[in-house]
User: Fold these one by one.
Assistant:
Number 1:
Amino acid sequence: MSQITLYLDDETAARMKAAAEAEGLSQSKWVVKLIHQRTTTEWPPSVASLAGAWGDLPDPESVLEDGDVPDVQRESL
């Protein structure tokens, strides 16, 4: 297990201590929780469950088939 040393000004240290206490965590566990939240590589289940939730949105093919809206001129690459 790695250890790090943080140098915090008094105000930041007090805010961290208050936030950790409010969540019932030690300051170390609070920092670990924050790092996990900020470095996650997957969507949380609450967001992933929204996939396909908007069934009334048209699929791209039907939008292009409508012909009501002209396609915009594309820049060449």
Number 2:
Amino acid sequence: MKFNKWTLGLAAVGLVSLNPATQAVDSTSATVLTALSSTTLSGYVDTSAQWNLGTGNLNNPPYTFGGPSKADGFNLNVVQLSLDKPLDESEWAAGYHVDLWAGPDANTLGTQSSRNMTGDTGGSDFAIRQAYVALRTPVGNGIDWKIGVFDTVIGYESLASPSNPNYTHSYGFTIEPTTHTGILGTYKINDLINVTGGIADTVGPIINNRAFPAGGVFNGNKAESYKTYMGAVNLTAPTGWGFVSGSTLSFGAVNGFNDSTGVNSANYYVGATLNTPINALKLGFAWDLLDSHGNGGPDAYDLAGYVSFQATEKLSFNGRGEYLDNVGGGPRVYEFTATAQYDLWKNVISRVEFRWDHGDNGHFFGSNPNSSSDAPTRKNAYMLAAHPVGAASGAQAKSPSTLQND
């Protein structure tokens, strides 16, 4: 009996078995085709060009996905590839979602499970941002579950820069967790109230890490039952509330062992988006608190405000202002960002951004390139950036027969 290459390949790695019925009719291709037909492939390429004004950029503002390696040059930030089989409307729906990262930002994300044993990110330029099984159980209105690796439940900004109003991330985002390995449930009480709760190994982001490593990076004394807990509530203003209809208010918390600092910590978050009488104008607010429970880790809070104006179908302006206070005598920093976006090409985000960071209680930025000292020399840091992102979404995954002919 002759088998096609796809079937033989699956059999070779143990994903299918060649039973007599399969050998007779070679139905495996049809089965695989059915599974792939509802899977979509999407992704984006995130690039930038930065000019950090002034000389001596060793000490750049320490927001996530920034730093000296991106100053004064052209950058590939990250490539994201996503596979998605979303939940349908059935009571016992099932699916999955995968976000794969490649590029320098993948190392910054730091989800590589090898860190649990070696203590470093491995420098592979590869990371799993999300990879979870999606399930629904018919309890009440239905509980949607994520089991695996997923984004955190709190925060105003996304890990994915193209989803945010600005190119650079805020300090509020920087002090938040990013990803977790565990189980997360979401329940929609009604159109106005949505609740989420979950349990994870640690605050994150290292995949499969534990709060009780045996000979790993952190030799803590946590019980094997010790886990991280998280929850969030999202409220939406009803349609009868005039211009604020559709506005949202969110609050949540994450508490557990922080594998980035080696101590217990808690993150608390409150955020809101507000529609205004001007349809094109939207406002936002975020408050973040990082509390290490007095365990010697960092303590900080951040206040941020956002404004977005959709001038035309293609042109928009976004602004952000924030204040970060590292409690206990640490740096206090103001930050202001202005971003203009014009969608000139289809499926391409084109941005120009100016950012100003100001140290309120000291010199935190820059350095003297003619000195052997790495000490910061400036209170102010200025950055001008161009941010083009090419994206493709909703592409149907190819069938086995198509792949054989490529």
Number 3:
Amino acid sequence: MKILAATTAPLDLPTDLLALACGDDAPAEAPLVAAIDQALGGSLRRAISDERFRGKPGQLVSLHTQGRLAASRVALVGVGPEPRGAPETTALLTFAGRVARLANATGAVNAALVPPAALAASAPAVSSALALGLELGSYRFDKYLSEDKRTPPSLRNAQLLLGDAISAAAAIAAIERGQRVAAAITRARDLVNEPAGFMTPTRLATVAQEIASENSRPMGKLELTVLGPEECAARGMGLFLAVAQGSVEEPRFIHLAWKPAAPRTDKRIVLVGKGVTFDSGGLSLKPSDAMLDMKTDMAGAATVLAALEAVAAEGLPVEVHALAACTENMISGRAYKLGDVLRSKAGKTVEINNTDAEGRLTLADAISYGLELQPTAVLDFATLTGACVVALGPYIAGVMSNDDALASTWLAAAQAAGEEMWRLPLPERLAEQLKSEIADMKNTGERWGGALTAGLFLKEFVGSVPWIHVDLAGPSSTDKELGHVAKGGTGFGVATIVEYLRRVSAA
């Protein structure tokens, strides 16, 4: 999509769709709304009244101008309370996403967006958020639909009406930042949406190779290492390989590294993503309904690989490593068993009391591999526990950490990126649940506090290195469209990773 910032007065701009972000403070009385209503002979005010439009999130009024304006159609999109000060990224993303959906539904090729006037002072951040929302709002995963069932997006051009709040050069740079992140999120969504029969561990490794080899990167290079089962065995990855042994699909350990040509910091960040491409539960077999969406259990791996694509495209001057231990968790005569005692790469032994708690096993060995890179911080991302969804619902990711400063920086990046996250504790008293009589630890505790004991399990393998654990089981996929978020894989976490690494680079 071609996205530009424009200084043209909204009433004078010829476009297929003119969309205004309206807060809940008397939207009908806003000067621009009043001017449009006057040009339309009062029909906009009548539509506002008829639709009971109050500018609340989720509300929308749209009508054809019948040639009375330069724009063919005008839309008012509710964004809730008028922002005061810092950009309300989530509201902007939702606004732009809804505009993209309306444009594509009405066949609009061109659209113009008017964000809340209160955000003019934050025009670069607003521009990035609107560009990101527009691109994501147009996303569709239709690869497996017949041609006659596909409806390609019509929207090709968008103008952001920011007045003189931003220079042309700054606007272009900000829009490009948003579009780079959108491309990475789209990559992550595609990976998660693919059927498990296609997106196998070996296929994920192929995708990593595609990312590493794409385009020339004068600001640095992407390096890829892929380990097969024999190489993983030589490195002592007993937990990862035990999960993998029940499947006929070979596991792959992916290590994608971004090495900037001129780093501005000596920090080295390791990102670890859970890469279980299909999770049957193993011998602790899931019921059929619970297995339906288990192709999404590799969303953590999709997130870290896609984020590195954005990091390389932006040329961030910080060294970053993305790790993903990719496997299926299946049943067979070779599957690992309840009661097995496994030895991890770190040397710790683990008694298995639930084969459906496999993600933490793969992550533990991946974290141990990552520690050998001598990182300044380790961040892991996983669709790890249903307990986290019970605690926080489907839209918010749980965050656990052993370092308050890192957690604070991470949560600030999440807020700026428009992704909802909430910090959860790591209470040491719950670690008692992981004690085993025959091994160093068990892989699960009791039902209560399941998200926290999963975090405590991982903490045992981190040591003193600053660490963040993000349980994105809820927001990694959705069965509802919401603004810029499409049904299926969401690409959650990519935007926050990129924002966090921008902050690390600038520190």
